[in-house]
Amino acid sequence: MRFLAPPLALAAALALPARAADVFSPGDLSRAHAHLGGLENCTRCHPRGEQLSQARCLECHKELAPRVAGGRGFHGRIAEKDRACWACHHEHQGRDFAAVDWGAGGPRRFDHAKTGTSLAGKHAGVACERCHDPRLVADPGVKALLAEQPRRRTYLGAPAMADCARCHLDEHRGQLGPDCQRCHGESAWKPAKGFDHARTAYPLTGKHAAVACEKCHARVEDAARPDPGALTPAVHADFHVRYRPVAHALCLDCHRDPHEKRFGDACARCHTTDDWRRIASQGAEQRAFHERTRYPLAGAHATVACVACHGPWPGQPAVFKPLAFQACADCHADAHAGQLARGGQEGARCDRCHALQGFQPVRFGVEEHDRTRYPLQGAHRAVSCAACHPHEPRVADGFPAAAREELRRRGRPVKLSLSLYALAGDLRRCETCHADPHGGQLRREAGCAACHELTSFRKVRFDHGDSRFALTGAHARASCTACHGPDPAVGGAVRYRPLPLDCAGCHADPHAAQLAGGCDRCHGTDDWKRTLFKHERPFTEYALAGRHAKVACEKCHAAVQVAGGAVRKYRPLPRACEACHADFHRGRMRPFEPVVRASSSPTPTTSSVRLERGAKRGVEGRNKPDLVPALAHAGGDTACVKCHTVDAWSDVAFAHERTGFPLRGAHARLSCKDCHGASVERALGRSCSSCHRDVHQGRLSSRCAECHGEESWKARFDADAHRRGNFPLTGRHAFIPCQECHGDRRDRGFTRATSECIACHQNDLARAATAAVDHRAPGFPTRCQTCHSPWRFRPAFFPAHEACFPIGSGPHAGVACLSCHTALSGLQATGTCATGTAACTRCHACASHPQDVPGFACAERKCYECHRSGTPVGLRSLQLKRRSP
């Protein structure tokens, strides 16, 4: 097999600057995406091996992601199968190419209905910039985009069509609410075709219907005039028309009383809106006649004209018998539009509240209200009726159209009480009528009554002991506002929940975050300075014992300066003796201090302590032994306490195993002077050769302990120890008998065994000449382990081939040599890559290759120039299909 040579063309291409690499691009990006140019940015939009990704587009255009996910706006309403960004936004067309495809006619011909909002009436002719003004944007995502890119132009975030006040000045100055479409249409602002005066609290009847609007609704000068340069256009910048409140309860609110109040203020008892001069009165004879009927006229009925009850009316003659009169509803329409009929027939009776003398005043007081489903209690008994039953124009919507037509036919006005009586919701809960001053923080099953009383809202019966944070000690004496203050996050309401329950939520940490576990471990709520801390567990792992218990606190915990001022340092503090005490031995015992390695056991044992290779070397001698480095600590203990105690420094107990050389076997029976001589502080080597003569004369290294023990010098070498030699027995070698390599029975030839494969596998090399690959003819090296493993001789791994063309991994892993190479005989291992016998077209068809790739040719050598690693390269994915050989 010949080696594949790496083509120089791709190496030169990799050395080209980024500008030269752009020749592979299908074209320049638009100006908005110009920063994404260059081959290194292709995968920002084109995932490897795939086409464009819409998810990649939305990663940059975050303002569109929630609209697409929610199905809102133009992009969200596009069908998912058609929602491909590149279908409308084309790229690689040059810097000046428009990235938005508006279609024929440009933005002004755009079908606005595709956004979910159709432009009708006058809105259809408004220029796009009038509504798509950055100052009108309220969407948080779009506002963040414009803040980052002030010069960016976007059509997102325009006000909703129903929100008229965002673009138009409210000519009524908030008198009629924000729903402009109740009266006005998109075709023209005037006239207000949706407005019907009959649906107001004062329907226009008779000659009132012909009165000009400005006679009752006067112009009022604005106290604070709108800014002429404001975003919303101002038609009338200095005045507005007064629509409400307008007094209309009495005729005298608008008309002068010619009788000078001699007949009272109830003008309607004699006059009508049809003609002021026509008096609606009855003669004494007619009233006397009605007294003899089953329905004597009493109260206000005595002044009613006969035609009002008996007719005639258009299309109906006068009726005197039979005529229903048992209930008020027989003649009068329900002025409450059916709101009080839910209580049954008894609840709909007018005389429960009204008298014959007049519709007002109403005979419904606190006692009557107590018989309803909501009896008035506490402060509610002093609240005006209008506070709970407000004037609601929509009540008129419940008045039957048939009744309205019947009154019109009889020439009677539609008189309605627009007070709201049919209240929705659960009247047992305060929030049905009252706004929650706590901003939804304290929602409970019991509602507001859990803390407040009906007699006074400010009278609270809340017990802090029932909460998650009972007030004790100094907390019980603190004012409520010290913890509960106004919070803009809940609309300026007082923050009650959630509040932090730990001390750090309200109090600054005087220890500068040195002590974890909460303040209540040491402090109580009664007195901050009276602590529960004790210098022992569980407060600290460093218990004060012996002489340490008498040392003043500030001797160890000194004051230090931090950003907030002076803080006494508690943690971290060193626990080693030498951090506070001078070394009595002046470093002479330092080489024998043990280094503790982390282990699963909480207290290190002798087996978990081992000596590291030190920086210092031992005493003069033939072999310089390894020494132990400086300080080491075990389970909080310092090196000093291995020999000394806190009770008395002079009380010493030394254990030799802490030096890293435990005395075992024959060593334990020696005296200290046998090794140390006169100075026990003198460092000694730990290797056997420091004290013992090497009987093997250096042929088997100096690690005697691998074969010999401390109890006896007798060797304990076994097969497993062979792994620590210069030829570990791995793979099939582990099962070969020792005498196959070590034939000398006296010393087994320990120093004469070879580690070269060829020394034992000459016959295997000869047999390879008859196999598919002749190892001798190409000049392969005799280092068998380069390609073969001691576990399995087949298959072999060819590292040189990996440098030119990977076959150990990737799509060509496991392919036989002759599947790609036409011939293997006569090849020479030159160390270079060559493709003379490689036939790529055996498996890969040229017809499936894109023909528009620059430099493409269906030739074996051309394949390797681009596909050196066996995978498609370039800006376009080459969809190559592998065929069976």
What does this protein structure show overall?
This protein is low in regular secondary structure and 885 residues long. It is built from 19 helices and six strands. The strands form three sheets. A two-stranded antiparallel sheet has the order 1-2. Strand 3 and strand 4 (565-568) form a beta hairpin. It is elongated and about 155 Å long. The two termini are 19 Å apart. The model is unreliable at 1-23, 595-636 and 874-885 (pLDDT under 50).
Largest sheet report: 2 strands, antiparallel
Helix/strand/pairing category: little secondary structure
**Overall geometry:** elongated
User: What integer value in Å does the Rg equal?
Assistant: 51 Å
* Number of helical elements: 19
Give the helix proportion (percent range): 10-25%
Strand content: under 5%
Low-confidence stretches: 1-23, 595-636, 874-885
Average pLDDT score: 76
Strand order within the widest beta sheet: 1-2
Q: Could you tell me the number of beta strands?
A: 6
Q: Please provide the ordered H/E string of secondary-structure elements.
A: HHHHHHHHEEHHHHHHEEEEHHHHH
Determine the N-to-C terminus distance: 19 Å
Short description:
Helices cover 12% and strands 2% of the residues. It has 885 residues and is mostly loops.
Helices, strands, pairings?
Blueprint: H1 8-14, H2 18-21, H3 54-60, H4 65-70, H5 73-77, H6 128-131, H7 140-148, H8 213-216, E1 219-221, E2 239-241, H9 284-290, H10 306-310, H11 366-369, H12 385-388, H13 401-410, H14 553-556, E3 559-562, E4 565-568, E5 595-596, E6 609-610, H15 672-676, H16 762-767, H17 799-804, H18 817-820, H19 860-866
Antiparallel strand pairs: 1-2, 3-4, 5-6
